[in-house]
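**User:** My hope is that you can spare some time for a protein that puzzles me. I have put the entry right below:
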Amino acid sequence: MLVSTSFPKYDENFTISMALKDAPSHPSQVTKSIANWFDSEGGFVEDVFVKEVQALIASVEKSS
């Protein structure tokens, strides 16, 4: 699996892209505000992030 991320300077949106090595031209991706993965005190909410990544992996596997 190929994984790439993008987090442009001064942007709140973080993009995770995933594709199978056999089909790199057909990536699945998710773009969200990083605020979705942090609580009101600034702590990283790992379980929410992991669910997003697991859903993305499932999407890539389903499309193969």
The chain has one domain: 2-62. The mean pLDDT is 92. Residues 2-62 form one domain.
